[in-house]
Design goal:
The chain is α/β, with parallel strands linked by helices. It is 26% helix and 26% strand.
Length: 378
């Protein structure tokens, strides 16, 4: 994110000048803290821009190499215009005030909470906007953030035409350009009806199997000409869900050992309040960082970094600190990531995955409504 400071000359010639460096240090420190813990670069392809809006248009893949006779010239690969997507960026502002009286009465200790609250509010706003955009990709709207029904649409269209109505980003009805509707559908939204009440001793293995099956589907995604698109799925994003995280890590450990199959697991408490990622959903995102970057999957634009201005108000003699930034996010190529709900709550417009796990012999040591399962001793 970073911070750009604009200190008015009048501030440097006043009693408020002693506050400038401490407040700047507080703001920079907290921005760095949010950057280290942020979910944004884990889900979104980070970009900067100097435009009011950005528009991207995909093109069909290049043809493959073909066998030729000796001295035969190479054929020219044809490209066709693909889907397009526009990104528009919002303006975000906030401010806090230090009164002249605070300086006169030597109450500098009361200023730090204001500075902390100001910059934490900025970092929190970015995180909340990011997770709400993820919710929008599932069909949610958040008017307080100007996130509408169109915010969560991807690059492809519902009818396969170049300029048609945009398709929901997470759905099982993605199809190739110019295909008839219902033909060659590809899915990046899945669900599995798993049980999280403690009665299923194979829950970790089932979660790992579901992830493996969805990863296999993603490895076989096809482009507009029917070519397989290489997708390396290496990141899993979940909400703050202790039950899911524990079972997920255990399932990957049992399958791959301590390496967890090379998966990076990212946990975001901000996701917990988003419809589709609550405790009843036990949902996750399966992401290919490379495809996300190359295909403009989920993309975040920082149009104007946080610019903080410090000035003295002529009418009140108070020191104002105002912050302004412009940023926005959107979705393009669906092949970059998939959503998986591990309960039936996410079954709408989703592909069902049935885990295939070989059961281990178990012995019921407490045959009651809440049995305890242990491995059978041979």
């Amino acid at each position: 994110m970073g911070v750009i400071f604009n200190i008015q000359e009048a501030v440097n010639n006043s009693a408020f000048n002693i506050l400038q460096e401490p407040i700047k240090m507080i703001l920079e420190r907290e921005v760095e803290a949010f950057e280290r813990e942020s979910i944004i670069p884990k889900v979104f392809n980070m970009r900067t821009t100097d435009k009011y809006r950005e528009e991207f248009r995909s093109v069909t893949a290049m043809d493959g190499f073909k066998p030729v006779e000796d001295m035969e010239p190479a054929g020219i690969s044809s490209f066709e215009e693909g889907y397009n997507k526009q990104y528009v960026f919002q303006e975000w502002k906030n401010a806090f005030v230090v009164s002249k009286q605070v300086i006169e009465d030597n109450e500098a200790a009361s200023i730090e909470p204001k500075a902390l609250g100001f910059i934490k509010g900025y970092g929190r706003t970015r995180e909340l906007y990011a997770v709400r955009m993820i919710g929008a990709a599932l069909g949610n709207v958040y008017p307080e953030y100007r996130i509408t029904a169109n915010s969560g649409k991807g690059m492809d269209t519902t009818d396969g035409t170049v300029e048609g109505t945009k398709q929901q980003y997470f759905t099982n009805a993605h199809h190739r350009l110019n295909d008839s509707v219902g033909t060659y559908n590809q899915s990046n939204k899945f669900y599995a009806s798993l049980t999280f009440d403690g009665s299923d001793a194979l829950l970790p293995e089932k979660i790992a199997d579901v992830i493996g099956q969805v990863g296999s589907i993603m490895h076989k995604y096809k482009d507009e000409k029917g070519n397989i698109v290489p997708v390396a799925v290496k990141r899993i994003v979940i909400a703050e869900d202790y039950v899911l995280e524990t079972a997920l890590r255990e399932g990957l450990r049992r399958k791959f050992g301590d390496s967890l199959g090379g998966y990076e697991i990212v946990v975001s408490p901000y996701l917990s309040d988003i419809t589709g990622f609550t405790d009843s959903d036990h949902a996750l995102l399966l992401i290919s960082p490379e495809r996300n970057r190359e295909g403009m999957g989920a993309t975040w634009f920082d149009r104007v970094p946080l610019t903080v201005k410090s000035f003295i108000d002529d009418h009140t003699d108070a020191n104002y600190w105002t912050g302004r930034a412009r940023f926005g996010a959107g979705f393009g190529d669906f092949r970059a990531m998939s959503y998986i709900a591990l309960t039936s709550s996410g079954s709408t417009n989703a592909t069902q995955i049935t885990p295939v796990v070989a059961g281990k012999p178990v012995h019921v040591t407490n045959p009651s409504s809440a049995p305890v399962y242990t491995d059978e001793i041979a």
